[in-house]
Write a structure and sequence with these properties.
Blueprint: E1 6-13, H1 27-35, H2 46-53, E2 57-62, E3 67-74, H3 78-90, H4 96-114, H5 117-129, H6 143-147, H7 151-161, E4 167-172, H8 180-184, E5 208-214, E6 220-228, H9 234-248, H10 254-262, E7 268-274, E8 280-288, H11 293-309, H12 314-330, H13 335-347, H14 366-376, E9 383-389
Parallel strand pairs: 5-9
Antiparallel strand pairs: 1-3, 1-4, 2-3, 6-8, 6-9, 7-8
Length: 395
């Protein structure tokens, strides 16, 4: 849009919740909050006021593997925005008074999360399946873990993980909005370049079957969780994306067509791939009535068996490829989406064209999809969770 020239600056760091030590649970997310409470040169709130005065906006997000901070700004103001962002993220003040105030904000966020039955069921699924891994812990931490934190501990966490070798800066917008010279002269040049300790362990999922009752849950849940290869195995990640699409994307997908459209025993069917650095996860979630849980489970097992023993047809494969390809293309419609994708890939040493994953789809023939389903999507390999509504949640 020539009349609305925008630049996105996105700073990513390998400092997600999986990088926390045993006494730091929730630290990565809490630090994300504290960063916006000022730096060595910016008073609390000054960053937001100045970015807004420049015509921009900012935000941040914390995940299992990484955290990122981004600014969307008119391109002419990008150099100043870069200076402000790096000052804020790399030199946070972590003042005692702001720490105490913001801890209450995060504690309230934890309380709100605990008050959402759907989210609690999902967290229980992860906790059971990833019991001995960081991916099984809530990113927000717990009330007890937050109360044990201090500004000094947070500063140690920041100094340990916010290092040059753990950081990636992505910029999308008009050419020369920010030059390499500007970046080379920024605070990034002063960061230590040696790698921080790598305490991340590979994910090993625990299969099994569990049931629970959840108060205020509006409908029953049938859920399954499978392990998948690490994000670095992009070939298999693409195959998993195609499989989940074939099974659950749209009315013509196998599970939706069978459970919701034909038998009408499911209210919703969702199957997602979460690509993670230490081991990806495939999640199936089906909402249904309590009396239909047994039939839903039987039909899911039947469809998984059918996929693993009967080759999908060309129409199914082509439809899945089209949907997955469109999803990737549509994920790059804005500068913010482009920077996020570019930075995430580069942060984890996947230096490639953003559209490179499209080239990985062609080798996934119908026969290979069938073999992958037989190898990776067996019910006995999954963690199965049945969640029933408590008395107060039944309609």
């Amino acid at each position: 849009m020539p009349d609305a020239s925008l630049t996105c600056i996105d700073l990513w760091c390998r400092a997600g919740s999986s990088g926390e030590r045993s006494d730091e649970h929730g630290m990565a997310h809490f630090l994300e909050h504290m960063v916006f409470k000022g730096s060595s040169t910016l008073a609390p709130g000054a960053f937001d006021r100045e970015i807004e005065a420049l015509g921009g906006s900012s935000n941040a997000a914390t995940g299992f593997d990484d955290v990122h901070f981004h600014v969307l700004i008119p391109s002419g103001q990008a150099p100043r925005a870069l200076e402000l962002l790096l000052d804020l993220v790399l030199c946070p003040a972590l003042a005692e008074d702001a720490f105490q105030t913001e801890r209450e904000v995060v504690l309230e966020e934890i309380a709100q999360y605990a008050d959402q039955p759907d989210e609690q069921v999902l967290q229980k699924l992860l906790a059971l399946g990833c019991a001995d891994h960081d991916y099984g812990r809530p990113i927000l931490g717990t009330s007890n873990s937050l109360m044990a934190m201090s500004p000094a501990k947070m500063r140690q966490f920041h100094q340990r993980l916010y290092r040059g070798s753990n950081l990636c800066l992505a910029i999308a917008g008009p050419d020369q909005a920010i030059s390499k010279t500007m970046v080379a002269a920024s605070r990034l040049a002063d960061l230590p370049d040696h790698s921080a300790e790598n305490s991340l362990s590979d994910l090993v999922l625990r299969p099994g079957r569990h049931e629970l009752t959840v108060d205020r849950l509006e409908a029953a849940r049938f859920m399954m969780l499978w392990p998948a290869p690490q994000a670095a195995d992009q070939d298999w990640v693409m195959g998993a994306d195609l499989l989940t699409t074939l099974l659950s994307e749209g009315r013509r997908s196998r599970l939706v067509a069978r459970l919701r459209e034909t038998l009408q025993i499911a209210e919703s069917v969702e199957m997602d791939l979460t690509s993670l650095e230490r081991g990806s996860l495939i999640t199936l979630e089906i909402c249904c009535q309590v009396e239909d849980l047994e039939a839903v489970e039987a039909e899911v097992h039947r469809e998984l068996h059918r996929l693993s023993t009967t080759t999908p047809n060309d129409g199914e494969r082509n439809r899945a490829m089209q949907l997955v390809g469109n999803g990737l293309r549509f994920a790059m419609e804005s500068t913010g989406q482009v920077t996020a994708m570019a930075a995430n890939q580069a942060l984890w040493n996947r230096h490639q064209s953003l559209l490179h994953p499209l080239s990985l789809m062609a080798p996934w023939s119908c026969e290979r999809l069938q073999d992958a389903a037989a190898e990776r999507l067996r019910p006995d390999q999954a963690l199965t969770l049945i969640a029933r509504p408590g008395a107060s949640g039944q309609c």
